[in-house]
């Protein structure tokens, strides 16, 4: 059943678009908190005080924090959506 929080639904849809189907629910559980900008838009998404992601004002895409990236990494199968850097 879809969540009734419009902010949560929006960031989940953005995450699904950016990272693939199912990413939104995996990264953003129902108990996330939102920090709003002065214009009333979602700015940051927090879970237990840790930044999961920020909605970039210029284009509306997500920039993941360490906690959000860790959740996404656990969701994706290797080698999907990975960058490997060798020295």
Number of discrete domains = 1
CATH architecture descriptor text:
Roll
- In which range does the helix fraction lie? 25-40%
CATH class: Alpha Beta
What does the largest sheet look like? Answer: 4 strands, antiparallel
Sheet with most strands: strand arrangement = 1-2-3-4
Mean pLDDT: 90
User: Roughly how many Å apart are the termini?
Assistant: 46 Å
CATH superfamily: ArcTGT, C2 domain
Q: What is the helix tally?
A: 3
Give the topology, please.
Layout: H1 6-19, H2 23-27, E1 33-36, E2 42-47, E3 50-55, E4 62-64, H3 66-75
Antiparallel strand pairs: 1-2, 2-3, 3-4
Description:
The protein has 87 residues and is α+β, with helices and mostly antiparallel strands. The protein has one domain: ArcTGT, C2 domain (Nuclear Transport Factor 2, Chain: A), CATH 3.10.450.90. The chain has 3 helices and 4 strands. Strands 1-2-3-4 form a 4-stranded antiparallel beta sheet. Strand 1 and strand 2 form a beta hairpin.
């Amino acid at each position: 059943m879809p969540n009734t929080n419009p902010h949560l639904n929006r960031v989940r849809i953005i995450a699904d678009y950016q990272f693939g189907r199912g990413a939104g629910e995996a990264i953003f559980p129902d108990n996330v908190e939102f920090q709003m900008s002065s214009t009333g838009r979602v700015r940051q998404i927090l879970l237990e005080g840790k930044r999961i992601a920020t909605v970039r004002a210029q284009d509306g895409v997500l920039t993941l924090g360490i906690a959000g990236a860790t959740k996404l990494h656990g969701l994706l199968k290797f080698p999907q959506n990975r960058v490997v850097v060798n020295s």
